[in-house]
Structures are given as C-alpha cells and as structure tokens.
Input
Amino acid sequence: MKKFKRRSARMDIRHFHVAVRRYFRQIFSIPAALIPLVLEPFALLLILYLVCKKDAFTVKDIGAANIILFVLVVMAAMMGILNSYREICKERDVLAREVFGGLDVTAYAFSKSVVLCAVGAVQCAVLFFGSLTFIDFAFPNPAEGILLCLLALILVNICVTNLGLLISAALKKSESAILPVLIVIILQVVFSDCLIEIGGAAGWIKYITPSAWGIAVFGRECGINGWTEYFSKDLYSLHPAVPLVILAVFSFVLLSLTIWKLKRTYRRKD
Output
C-alpha cells in the first residue's frame, strides 16, 4: 500500500477508502472468497425451510414460532462470526508491514468492519426476504414489522461480526480462534432467551447476548406475548427501538475494542 503521512485526518480517510476498495476487490475477484459468502444465506434458508412450521404465526403456535425466530436470528449471528473471525489473523504479516509504512490502524479496522457488515447486510436481506416466501409472520403492521425485523437481523449480524473482528485482533493465528468462536456460537444459542429458559444469575447473560435482542424485536413485532395469557417474555414487551439501540451500542463498543487492541499491538510501530 502507498505510504501516507502520519497523523493527518485527511490521510486517514484516504487510508479508509483505499482499504475498503481493496477488500471489496479481494472478495469479488477471488472465487474461493466470494462463493461461500453467496452460498451461506441460501444454505441456511434451505435449513430454515426444512425445520420450520410454515403457518406457525397464523395459527399462533408459540413453540413453532419461537423455533423460527431462534433459527433465523442465530443464523444471522453465525454468518457474522464465520465471516470475520479470521480476517485480521490471516493478515498479520501484511498488516505489520503496512503499519510500518504508515497505515492508520483505525482506518484499517473501520474498513474491515464496513466491508464485512455490508456483506452481512446483503446476506441477512437474502435470508429474511427468502423466509417471507414460505413463512407468514402475520405482522399486525406488515411494513413496520418487515423493516424493523430486517434491521434487527442486520444489527445482530453487525454486532457479532465486530465481535469476530475483536477475536481476530486478539489472536495471532486463525487456528486459535476455533474455541472462542465456538463459545460465541454457544452463547447465542443458549442465552438467546427463546427456546431455553435460564433463571438465576446465569439468566442475566441474555442481556449481553446479541441474538436475544434480535429475537426480542421479532417477538414484539409479531405480538407473540398477546397470543395467550400463559406466555409472556419481558424482552418481547420492549419497544423495538430499545433492542435496536442496544445492538448498535454493542456494535460500536466491540469495534472500538478492536481498534484499541490493534493500537496496543502495534504501539511500538507508531
């Protein structure tokens, strides 16, 4: 990469633009990188089609509806972590040389996040609109429900994508990320506050679990709490803006931690 002057706000922006263009070129010019990204949402959509009850929301089957929400949102989270957990690890040698040449670490991290989040947003759109072809979510307000639920899926994906970048920034080799990635996926499954009820102190973990907040938006927009007097979840009662803002804050914090970690790693090279 071309050398730029250090500590110039304008040059930082140029670093960002150059890096974004480079990463998009890498994705679209390398079949081994592009094909998995294209196939991921369609493969997950096929799984959703096979396991879901198509009329769960119209017949108000709470168990089947929760399974659909769980699978849909956790899939969005899984795409985020799988797309990002190796991105910084695999470029350690190249990144070190570019930092020596004046690359701004903040611009580098932002460019990674922007490209991966753009890819994730497209994947989530394919997954969600694909699900609408065979699932009737019976939104009381369809326009609002579709918009907010799509936004929830995208924010869950962005949040877990940035978590994957943080893991990648903290480790030297991508092989070492397998255990952290497995833990992240398990947390999204166990503490999603959907299929598994967990009480006591462990139950508080759901409040830092992205999938739980994403499912909360779906639960509210589908009006699941009003289906029967015997079922009610606190998160399903929240205004959709609350979980969406929380997911956005989580995403910002995780990206900030990634930048902080990279700056600490390369502080002697500044």
Notes: The two ends are 16 Å apart (CA to CA). The first helix runs from residue 9 to 29. DSSP finds nine helices and no strands in the chain.
